[in-house]
Design a protein that fits this description.
By secondary structure, the protein is an alpha+beta fold. The protein is 44% helix and 17% strand. It has a five-stranded mixed β-sheet. Strands 1-2 form a two-stranded antiparallel ribbon.
Length: 225
């Protein structure tokens, strides 16, 4: 345990591994997934993980850049990350303070956990308004085309199909499975504005955190009427 802790127990390290397990390979993508970590510290930690044999760098000639990928040893940490996330969901969520909330981290995580086919193949633009944030960080957009989802911190210029109005605290609680989406909509803590069919599809589109319990995901699933 002591030797393993030397490699993975330093602050941020398991979050980097979580991002790599989730599919991030570029330095800037890793930065988005761990936004409170400085670029210099991220670079240093990646070098340490490479030296330990947990990750490897691969040169991408077409982009003149390099990707970071987990080795067999790194991929073997997947159960550790999963169990730690599940432990946090059960025992640590009550300790979420206002300073723990980060809209960039939340939106980046949500972007990776959606059902791309929920809206079909046409483009659907979803605008989020977080009522408890300052003007500069209040508005975010997802552009879903059935094949990928783009996250836009600035207005992408398309007509908005669905508006989501809520607070960062409420959206975070929904995302981690602490608050059912249906309950938040019913009591007005989250407002959906747009065609009724798009509102229904939105509830299928948002899959919640991978660490949210199965029960939480089922509670947030749409109900047939």
């Amino acid at each position: 345990m002591a030797k393993a802790a030397e490699i993975v127990a330093e602050r941020w390290t398991l979050l980097i591994i979580r991002e790599l397990l989730a599919g991030s390979t570029r330095f800037n993508d890793l930065r988005r997934g761990v936004p409170l970590m400085s670029p210099a510290l991220l670079s240093k930690r990646l070098q340490q993980l490479e030296h330990a044999g947990v990750i490897e760098r691969q040169r991408v000639v077409a982009r003149k850049t390099q990707d970071y990928r987990l080795t067999e040893a790194g991929r073997a940490l997947a159960p550790v990350v999963r169990y730690l996330g599940e432990w946090g969901g059960r025992w640590a969520l009550d300790r979420l303070d206002e300073h723990d909330l980060d809209v960039t981290l939340l939106m980046w995580a949500m972007r990776r956990r959606v059902d791309l086919a929920a809206f079909g193949s046409r483009r659907v633009v979803i605008a989020f308004e977080f009522t408890d944030l300052p003007q500069a960080r209040r508005y975010w957009w997802f552009v879903n085309n059935g094949k990928e989802v783009d996250l836009c911190p600035k207005d992408p210029g398309f007509e908005v199909d669905l508006h989501v109005i809520t607070s960062l605290q409420v959206m975070t609680r929904i995302w981690v499975g602490a608050l059912p989406l249906n309950s938040a909509v019913r009591d007005g803590r989250l407002e959906l504005s747009g065609a009724r069919e798009l509102q229904r599809q939105f509830r299928c589109w948002l899959l919640l955190s991978p660490f949210a319990s199965t029960e939480a995901r089922e509670r947030s699933a749409p109900r047939e009427k």
